[in-house]
Write a structure and sequence with these properties.
By secondary structure, the protein is an alpha+beta fold. It has helices spanning 3-11, 51-69, 88-93, 123-127, 142-154, 165-183, 186-193, 200-206, 219-227, 237-249, 265-284, 294-297, 299-309, 334-337; strands spanning 23-27, 32-38, 73-79, 98-108, 158-162, 196-197, 210-211, 255-259, 288-291, 314-321. The chain is globular, with a radius of gyration of 20 Å. The two termini are 16 Å apart.
Length: 340
């Protein structure tokens, strides 16, 4: 097995929005490879600036850098074009289904682990995951808060958190409202539902997307939300469905926020690299998070967060804490990620 395939065996467990796994890799030699974006695995309706697809590629490259350093290798990358060229408009007009993103190169370097501020064992990439199940009532330890705050500062970001019960509940309620509204917006609905996996057979066939096992939802309620989203807005059904969804969220002792440069393409790429490390820092401490993306991408909800929370450049809001080990979403195989 080539070194690239060895790296990819672990890198395929990196996170991506809706678990779309947009990365493809073409191995050119033992030292060089091309990283590409699979066009159909972008989310233009939910990601109108392209910031999240760029973040995802930065995250994946940082994942490879860390894994390479664990093997006394340094990984370098050279972008094929300006990051501004990965907006939905540019991606839509691209003729190829595979968009060249970066040339990757490996070099033997005994001091490679010393060249990056913090190393992370391969096993952390496998234990890192999103937890949509109920969290335990204990808050994030002070030591962890300090470590996350310092890491964010080192990357030009800010980590903030809220543990006051009433404010947490207000945030959760606003998230539910934003989600229900977005599921009734045709463009958003059609795009996200394409990634819903309602059965074990579908999940195992595609090995991507939002698996009902990991959504802490019954197959029936997951299917109803996809096929009959108007139920979420009906006067009689809406209050009941809000209560059911809130129960599914379970205990949420703490809401975390990441804020800082993000919405410009170059910022989004560096932010992705940071986010990979932030998530691994959580895994080191057996902490989990669950992003509430609608609070960022839904404009009225994002404005509400700015006004109520007093933080004006949030790009990720999430519940954070300890939980039982949540289900693990499937990943495409290395062979499926590779391009001939």
């Amino acid at each position: 097995m080539s070194v690239w395939k060895t790296l990819l065996e672990t890198a395929i467990h990196a996170p991506s929005p809706h678990n779309v796994q947009p990365w493809r890799v073409r191995i050119l030699s033992d030292e060089r490879a091309d990283l590409l974006i699979e066009k159909r695995r972008t989310l233009p309706k939910e990601d109108p600036t392209g910031s999240f697809i760029i973040l995802t590629m930065g995250l994946f490259i940082e994942c490879l850098r860390i894994l390479a350093a664990n093997r006394s290798l340094s990984l370098h990358f050279e972008l094929y074009q300006a990051l501004s060229q990965f907006s939905p408009e540019h991606i839509a007009t691209a003729e190829s289904e595979l968009l060249p993103f970066a040339r990757l190169s490996l070099k033997h370097d005994e001091d490679s682990r010393e060249h990056i501020k913090e190393s992370y064992d391969d096993a952390l990439f496998l234990t890192r995951r999103t937890s949509r199940i109920s969290l335990l009532p204990e808050c994030v330890p002070d030591e962890a808060v300090r470590a996350l705050t310092n890491l964010a500062r080192d990357w030009g970001q800010r980590y903030e958190q809220i543990s006051e019960g009433k404010t947490v509940e207000l945030i959760l309620e606003r998230n539910i409202d934003a989600l229900f509204a977005d599921l009734n917006a045709p463009a958003y609905h059609d795009e996200i539902v394409e990634w819903f996996r309602f059965t074990d057979r579908a999940s195992l066939r595609t090995r991507d997307g939002l698996d009902y096992r990991c959504m802490n939802s019954s197959r029936l309620s997951f299917w109803l939300a996809a096929r009959f989203p108007q139920l979420l807005q009906l006067p009689l059904a809406r209050p009941l469905l809000k209560r059911i969804y809130r129960q599914q969220l379970g205990i949420v002792p703490t809401i975390g926020m990441l804020a800082g440069p993000f919405w410009e393409p170059e910022s989004a790429f560096e932010t992705g690299r940071f986010l990979m490390r932030f998530w691994l820092e959580l895994a080191k401490r057996d902490l989990y998070l669950h992003p509430y993306g609608n609070l960022v991408t839904n404009k009225p909800a994002a404005e509400w967060c700015r006004q109520v929370l007093g933080v004006y450049d949030i790009w990720l809001i999430f519940k954070i804490g300890f939980s039982k080990v949540p289900p693990q979403s499937y990943r495409r195989s290395v062979q499926e990620v590779l391009v001939d």
